[in-house]
């Protein structure tokens, strides 16, 4: 079913919306949950939470891209679950490298940070965006990214390293510090 | 801020970027090819004992009459792999391998079972002899025999210097991919030259910095691997330095990959502020043993303009991968063609010639020019000009050679009745 029709079901408060969403996006969101959690049971729980959250948030929301909206929910639930397990994903360590050091400031506006990130993503190439987002949005492993992109693992690592460096520069310019 | 907050913010980026990253970029052939290759192996196992190979070319197609052969063992080896795109079997074959005392000459063909190859399709052959590889001065040289390429067949030849080590070793013939000509649009690439300059170091230390820019020798530097991206492809900046009003860039491409076509396309550096082309005063290229193509470019440019520079790669006709395969066929060249003595017109000079090469010995001038003319008036195409190894691009019949001119002087005794 097309996203628009699924969203119409949500807005009509028709519970078929959940079944249609699960039918269409179970695999997509499942990959994200699996990438982060690596646990089948947790993955299923996380997906159930995702469908419920979608039901509770649409309406009032009507996302332009249902896939990324659901993916973002799954991503957040997965990381919360990981925190409950007192585990820390590897890519957090990698992202630490992006944060410029300096006088601590936590009063930056989140919207401003998102704007900085969007600006950074616009400034890099499509291939770079692909690799960066596969790693830090979809939380894919290096080997999976390399396989999908047709690159060697070392090339993916190298690209990510440089992208983190460039993001760090952009964040520093925008005044985002540790 | 911490990593988690950054990670959460990444989760709220523009959804169009997220959607864009759902689908892998174009290089998707590997996974599928792995599957079809596995199928091909099964197929090969199942048909290899009963396969009948239809040979579209043979020695008789190349020579009007078969050459005199001292000893011959033609290798008719087939390896079949399914294709990535057309999903139909492709047969790659070493049809024949001949050698004289100096070189080996290998005929190969690629045949699709049904669909004709697109116009202009070409296969890229390679040759290896393992430890005794073709690391001679000549290496190997190949081409297609256009008159034998038609429909679902591509045929060609490879010639290589024939060293004793190679004669003992098993050869490996390879077709990496089949390509078709394609019109490529111009592309822009944006290298981070300023960052590259900040990072660049000579591997041997500052004290070994050359006082002059490279002309015949290349500097030793650390590979930086800084990518410069265009729409979907990229190359790397490995070194950047500014000195005396000049910018040196060392750019690296991986040869024998999808980037190969654009690696050879003309690149110009544009100043985005002025729209003008930066003046390139030096360029040189070489390929290393790992298959990387290195470009050394020096530009005359003001330091303040470096941040404004980007590469523009001009539109061109390029080779585009039609079938991405990797066919390897082992072979052993056993045949030895006999050289005949051609009657020399110059005392003390001997001319020996087989259908695939010629050797001229004696008191000879430094060769500036040689032409070998055949009885039909055509000139044999020559690809190597050493006196002891003059190699014909396509086989000739020695008896039909009527003239061997070196530096304007005739060295072949004219036979009666031959013009």
Number of helices of chain B: 7
What's the mean pLDDT score of chain B? 71
| Inertia-based shape of chain B | extended
Q: Report the uncertain regions of chain A.
A: none
- The helix/strand class of chain A is mainly alpha
The amount of beta strand of chain A, in percent, is under 5%
Care to describe what's here?
The complex is a heterodimer of chains A (178) and B (419). Chain A is 72% helix and 0% strand. Chain A contains 9 helices and no strands. In chain A, helix 2 (16-37) crosses helix 3 (40-57), helix 3 (40-57) crosses helix 4 (66-84) and helix 6 (110-123) crosses helix 9 (153-173). With 419 residues, chain B is mainly β. Helix content of chain B is 13%, strand content 41%. Chain B is built from 7 helices and 26 strands. In chain B, the strands form 7 sheets. Chain B has a 5-stranded antiparallel beta sheet with strand order 2-3-4-7-6. A 5-stranded antiparallel beta sheet of chain B has the order 10-11-12-15-14. A 5-stranded antiparallel beta sheet of chain B has the order 19-20-21-24-23, with no helix packed on it. Chains A and B meet through helix 4, helix 5, helix 6, helix 7 and helix 8 of A and helix 1, helix 2, helix 3 and strand 10 of B.
Summary, kept brief:
The complex is a heterodimer of chains A (178) and B (419). Chain A has 178 residues and is mainly alpha-helical.
Structural descriptors:
heterodimer, A: 178 residues, mainly alpha, 0% strand, B: 419 residues, mainly beta, five-stranded antiparallel β-sheet, 13% helix
């Amino acid at each position: 079913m097309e996203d628009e029709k699924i969203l119409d079901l949500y807005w009509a408060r028709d519970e078929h919306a959940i079944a249609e969403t699960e039918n269409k996006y179970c695999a997509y969101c499942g990959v994200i949950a699996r990438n982060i959690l690596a646990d089948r049971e947790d993955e299923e729980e996380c997906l159930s939470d995702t469908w419920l959250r979608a039901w509770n948030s649409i309406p009032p929301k009507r996302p332009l891209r249902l896939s990324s909206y659901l993916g973002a929910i799954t991503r957040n639930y997965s990381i919360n679950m990981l925190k409950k397990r007192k585990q820390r994903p590897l890519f957090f360590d990698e992202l630490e490298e992006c944060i410029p050091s300096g006088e601590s400031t936590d009063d930056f506006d989140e919207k401003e940070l998102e704007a900085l990130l969007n600006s950074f993503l616009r400034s890099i190439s499509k291939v770079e965006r692909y690799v960066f987002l596969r790693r830090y949005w979809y939380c894919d492993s290096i080997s999976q990214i390399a396989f999908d992109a047709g690159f060697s693992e070392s090339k993916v690592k190298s690209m990510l390293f440089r992208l983190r460096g460039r993001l760090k520069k952009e964040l520093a310019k925008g005044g985002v510090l540790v | 801020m911490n990593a988690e907050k950054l990670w959460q913010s990444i989760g709220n980026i523009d959804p169009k970027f997220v959607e864009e990253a759902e689908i892998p970029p174009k290089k998707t052939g590997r996974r599928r090819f792995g599957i079809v290759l596995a199928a091909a192996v099964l197929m090969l196992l199942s048909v290899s004992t009963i396969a009948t190979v239809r040979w579209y070319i043979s020695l008789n197609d190349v020579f009007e009459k078969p050459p005199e052969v001292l000893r011959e063992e033609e290798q008719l080896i087939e390896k079949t792999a399914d294709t990535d795109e057309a999903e139909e079997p492709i047969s790659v074959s070493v049809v024949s391998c001949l050698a004289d005392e100096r070189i080996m000459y290998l005929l190969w063909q690629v045949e699709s079972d049904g669909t004709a190859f697109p116009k202009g399709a070409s296969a890229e052959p390679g040759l290896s002899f393992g430890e005794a590889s073709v690391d001679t001065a000549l290496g190997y040289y190949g081409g297609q025999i256009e008159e034998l390429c038609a429909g679902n067949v591509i045929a060609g030849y490879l010639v290589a210097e024939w060293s004793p080590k190679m004669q003992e070793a098993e050869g490996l013939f390879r077709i990496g991919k089949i390509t078709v000509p394609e019109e490529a649009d111009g592309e822009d690439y944006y290298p981070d030259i300023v960052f590259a300059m900040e990072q660049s170091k000579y591997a041997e230390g500052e004290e070994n910095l050359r006082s002059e820019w490279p002309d015949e020798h290349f500097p030793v530097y650390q590979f930086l691997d800084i990518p410069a991206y265009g729409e979907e492809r990229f190359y790397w900046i490995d070194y950047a330095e500014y000195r005396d009003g000049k910018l040196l860039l060392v750019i690296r491409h991986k040869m024998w990959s999808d980037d190969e076509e654009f690696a050879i396309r003309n690149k110009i550096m544009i100043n985005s502020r002025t729209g003008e082309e930066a003046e390139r005063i030096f360029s040189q290229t070489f390929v290393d043993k790992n298959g990387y193509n290195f470009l050394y470019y020096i530009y005359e440019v003001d330091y303040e303009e470096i941040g404004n520079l980007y590469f523009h790669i001009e539109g061109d006709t390029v080779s585009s991968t039609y079938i991405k395969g990797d066919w390897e066929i082992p072979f052993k060249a056993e045949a030895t063609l006999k050289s005949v003595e051609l009657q020399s017109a110059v005392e003390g000079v001997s001319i020996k010639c087989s259908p695939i090469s010629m050797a001229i010995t004696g008191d000879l001038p430094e060769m500036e020019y040689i032409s070998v003319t055949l009885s039909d008036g055509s000139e044999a195409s020559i690809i190597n000009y050493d006196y002891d190894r003059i190699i014909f691009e396509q086989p000739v019949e020695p008896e039909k050679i009527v003239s061997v001119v070196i530096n304007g002087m005739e060295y072949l005794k004219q036979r009666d009745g031959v013009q």
